[in-house]
UniProtKB/TrEMBL annotation:
GO terms for cellular component: cytosol. Residues 17-170 form the NB-ARC domain. GO terms for biological process: apoptotic process. It comes from the Eukaryota. Coiled coil: none annotated. GO terms for molecular function: ADP binding. It comes from Serendipita vermifera MAFF 305830. It holds the Pfam family NB-ARC. This is NB-ARC domain-containing protein.
Length: 370
């Protein structure tokens, strides 16, 4: 079995300046007497692997050896490490993954190697056994699991949403369209970008869909417009977001919703239920303090303004089942659920005035509702 290589840079790749600057500053510009570990985390389809591939393309002579590993499971890591070790020469034909680790712990003097652990998403995966400690070995890790950042807390890159300018560039490039556009088409493009949550894979899928339905008549281009796609998206959103495009980011063949489904299936049941509970809220700044106050009131109305129907008690019972631990409010229990959701990049959190607020990506919210 041949050793794997990093995916090629997608023709739709758009360089994001702030993440790129952090990556170059840490891996190229800054000198260090310690090993460099650079974790990149973010929700599926935000472009983590593509950023790594672009970096390697831009700095082809930085590393004497590039070792690319599918880190989706312990078995895939071991298999890929073994395959790489057996490329080192005839005397390594029978090497196993432990031999690869030994080789990575003894990088020849004067050389720099890089180990790429791609898609290390599983929170139950213990990466420590696969992290050699040689100072001449740089380690890049990509993951949906935010906790992977603990392997390099100072260098951790959380790859979030694109800027509006980057998102528009990605949409235009995938659709093979150029500026200027008329006012209606620009408004539709900007609305679509917002509806897609500035997420790279969603923008590429939307753009390529438009391109595939465009045509040329008598030498004149007749594009399938963003206005047309926006109307289609609003009436057929689930079907479009489940769809996998034949040519997407680094051969990433999953649709947006399929990517989210993979995370959902790995969640404990209480986390799934809490995620659905959050979805009717506005996706920005959902206050956990409101849940705490409601729980302390046993989810009862402070005053009787209007008679409740018989379903009210059923709803209260469900809320207690969701937010209570051992029949009472337990903030630590709820924070554990939030931590689990954050580890899959399904929610983000921020603090303000000693209060915790949650945010859902717009497409995560849509996916929960659909």
């Amino acid at each position: 079995m041949a050793a794997k290589t990093p995916p090629a840079v997608s023709p739709y790749f758009i360089l994001r300046q702030q993440p790129w600057k952090k990556m170059v500053d840490h891996l190229v510009t800054t000198t260090s007497s310690q090993q460099k570990i650079f974790p990149i985390t973010g929700m599926g389809g935000c472009g983590k692997t593509q950023l790594v591939s672009y970096f390697l393309r831009e700095y082809p002579n930085l590393y004497a050896q590039v070792i690319y590993i599918d880190a989706s499971s312990s078995s895939s890591i071991k298999l890929d490490l073994q395959a790489w070790a057996r490329t080192l020469g005839d005397e390594h034909d029978d090497d196993v993954w432990e031999d690869a680790i030994r080789a990575l712990n003894s990088v020849p003097g004067g050389e720099q190697w890089v180990l790429i652990l791609d898609n290390a998403d599983d929170p139950s995966l213990d990466l420590n056994q696969f992290l050699p400690r040689d100072i001449h070995l740089t380690i890049l890790i990509t993951s949906r699991n935010r906790d992977i950042g603990d392997h390099g807390p100072r260098s951790h890159l959380e790859l979030g949403e694109m800027t509006p300018e980057e998102a528009l560039a990605a949409l235009l490039q995938a659709a093979q369209r150029k500026l200027p556009m008329d006012d209606e088409e620009m408004r539709s493009a900007q609305t679509l970008i917002g509806d897609l949550g500035w997420l790279a894979i969603a923008l590429v899928q939307a753009g390529t869909y438009c391109y595939q339905l465009s045509s040329t008549v008598d030498g004149v281009s007749e594009p399938y417009t963003f206005t047309q796609y926006l109307s289609l998206f609003r009436s057929h959103r689930p079907d479009l977001l489940k769809k996998a495009e034949p040519s997407s980011l680094d051969n990433y063949q999953r649709g947006v919703y399929t990517t989210l489904d993979l995370s959902y299936k790995a969640l404990p049941q209480e986390c799934r239920e809490f995620l659905h509970f959050l979805s009717p809220f506005h996706y920005i700044d959902i206050p956990l303090a409101a849940f705490a106050q409601a729980a302390k009131n046993d989810f009862e109305d402070p005053d009787d303004y209007y008679p409740r129907d018989d379903s009210h008690e059923t709803i209260i019972s469900k809320l207690k089942g969701l937010l209570y631990k051992d029949m009472e409010w337990n903030e630590l229990y709820l924070q554990g659920i939030v931590r689990n959701l954050r580890s899959f990049s399904l929610v983000t959190a921020s603090s303000m005035n000693d209060s915790l607020f949650l945010q859902l990506h717009p497409l995560v919210q849509s996916w929960c509702r659909d």
